[in-house]
Amino acid sequence: MIDQPHLDEAALAELRDVMEGDFGMLVDTFLADSRARLRHLHQLLEQKDSDQLAKTAHSFKGSCINMGATHLSKLCAQLERAGKAADLSAAARLLDGVEAEFAEVASCFEQL
Amino acid sequence: MSGEFSPSQTLNSFSGSAEPSRLRILVAEDNKPDRMILCALLQKLGHEVFEVSDGTAAVDQFHEVDPDIVLLDAMMPELDGLSAARQIKSMAGERLVPVIFLTALTDPKELARCLEAGGDDFLIKPFNRVILDAKLNALDRMRRLHQALAEQVDQVRQKNEQMLAEQKTARRVFDNIAHTGSLDAPNIRYHASPMSVFNGDVLFAATRPGGGSLVFLGDFTGHGLPAAIGAMPVAEIFYGMVGQGFGAAAILREINAKLRRILPVGMFCCGAMLETDSRQGLVRAWNGGLPDAWLLRGSGERVAIPSRNLPLGVQSAENFSTSMVVFQVTPGDHVLLMTDGFPESANEQGELLGESGVRQVLAGLRSPADAFDALMLRVREFTGQPEAADDLTLCCVAIPELEQARPSTRKPSDAEPIGPADWQCVYEIRERTLSEFNPLPLLLHICMEVPGLRSRSGEVYTLLSELYNNALEHGVLALSSDWKNSPRGFALYYEERQRRLSDTDGHFIRFSLSHESRDPGGRLRVICEDSGAGFDFAEHSARASKTRSIPGSSYAGRGLELLRRMATHFHVHGEGNRVEIVYDWEPGREDDD
After folding, report:
1. What is the ipTM of this complex?
2. For the domain with range A26-110, which CATH number is right: 1.10.260.40, 3.40.190.10, 1.20.120.160, 1.10.230.10?
3. What structural domains does chain B harbor?
4. N or C end of chain B, less CB within 10 A?
């Protein structure tokens, strides 16, 4: 896979401008929200609920796009497709990838 | 996830939007970071934002928030965006509340589904301030346009309802004056829209006190209220005068005079009058400006009755002609009257049916009795409309068997009202009044107060009018009726009459009327004097009887003959400017003139 930046700098600059003083709160919310989603995704995988898995991955994808986490959003999209295809083994593999990329994104945000 | 609702307003000075309009925006988005970003964007754009976290909450809050625009995440737990959009659209009713879907979807099919669910637009993540602003402005313009349009439609509807209500009220007033008369008689068939009076069409029919019937079809210029207003006096004159025993000519004259007085220039009434007299087997017809009327004989013969006169309300009383075409008819013959809505019916190509179209239908008839149905069918076929238009009136009168045509059992003087039977009066008109005022209706009215005499109104009117016309034209104006024996002289006569009427200084016409009751009936004595130089009745009578064999000629002579025939006694005094008649009458006898 081509090495991509974890966060889109232009998107971040736009977000800062829009959110002004609330930018920090937005980041905290995103991180907390995402951790909750990741836990939820693992549960769904155990429960083999591929349908809900696809939906949660879709929703996760949306906030990743808005937060400038472009590569993470692409991984979420792949996970969503695996869920839709009810391909649980692929989903398990992709979820690990999402988990790893999120850790990178989170550390980027924490360094800001 | 619970529904959050927090009206977060910012009145900041941000002015990135070209349109200053501050919108109330309801946002439903379950994804918290996305919701934060979106609300911050909207507030920056100067809008008032109300946020909830799922579709159910959006539906619940809809009425309270009363938003201008709704932003819905397409995929939400509880109620998904598509279902929420449907509910919100139905709650908004006739209002346009634009719905924008928020979505990370990129599949074109999924996006299309959003719009099919009633979404007006969609906003794809990541949210972009410029695009969001542009979409909001576009939808706001659409929303306001829709609102303005809805208000206009509403106004138009209200105006229309008001107009219809007013028309109904007016219609009731009109119906009180212009009841259907004898239009429901078995020998009359007609088509007239219930609201036709507002298209200027009127149709009246009445049975004459002495038997026979009168039918009047009129078509006023113009539409709506102006056309309807003219219909009122016409109805009143028609029914009033028929009831008093007047014939077609007198009624036409009166309608013409009235309309000429009250209608503005350029407004008039095309009309046709039909007088049937089944005792004598006669139909008299007058057509002023309507399409050809038709006499359809049982034998198959068809006779057109074209317009030979100007419409009513155009000509002065002096120039107005009430000469009627007379036909000998037998039971089974039919007469058709129609307004120009009939030949002017247009088909989808804009072609007119035309009078030739009418002729075609009539030529194809097997029996005149089929004429009415055939013509109505033709119009429906031609126009392709199941209902004929409002301005199309058709009336078909069948000449009835004698029995059917008997005067209604309503005795002319229903239950003999109490009234003056023994009286005398003198009525004199002088000077300019002679040229401006017709005393006949007033004199007739006085006579008609006599119990029982109303049944003879036709004869009394004839007596009075002959005396009056004689006194005015040959006495006061000293006109010679000889002139009227040629067409050129006829015109000259009326020109001269008009001229001399403008100078009536020192002249008078005096009526002395008296009535005494007898059993049965009574005796009416009328003395008519005028200020003229006199008139040689003896010579005139001689000449009149000489030319009597030529029907229609010698108009004045015919009048004198009438007087002689109807009156019990007829005396000419002095120089011929004092005429006395005695008229003995009995009630219940049939009036004939």
Report:
1. 0.93
2. 1.20.120.160
3. 11-151 (3.40.50.2300), 179-404 (3.60.40.10), 423-585 (3.30.565.10)
4. N
The SS3 call for residue B538 is: helix
d(CA B219, CA B240): 20
Question: What would the pLDDT profile of B196-239 be if each residue is shown by its tens digit?
Answer: 667 788 899 998 765 678 999 999 887 777 777 788 889 889 98
Which among B34, B41, B44 has the least Cβ separation from residue A63? B34
C-alpha distance from A44 to closest chain B C-alpha (Å)? 15
Rg over alpha carbons for chain A, rounded to the nearest Å, is: 14
List CB contacts (< 8 A) between A61 and chain B. Answer: 104
| Residues A33-63: tens digit of each pLDDT | 999 999 999 999 999 999 999 999 999 999 9
Average pLDDT over residues B67-95: 85
Question: Which of A8, A18, A72 to probe the B interface (max B CBs under 10 A)?
Answer: A18
Across the interface, do B44 and A18 touch by the CB < 8 Å criterion? yes
> Which residues touch B408 (CB under 8 Å, ≥6 apart)?
B207
Mean pLDDT throughout B174-186? 76
Q: Given pLDDT bands bounded at 50, 70 and 90, which one contains residue B77?
A: low
Question: Which residue in this structure is represented by tokens 């809008």?
Answer: B47
Task: From chain B, pick out residues whose CB is under 8 angstroms from the CB of A22.
Answer: 36, 40
C-alpha span between B341 and B221 (Å, rounded): 12
Q: Is the dihedral of CA A19, A22, A24, A26 positive or negative?
A: negative
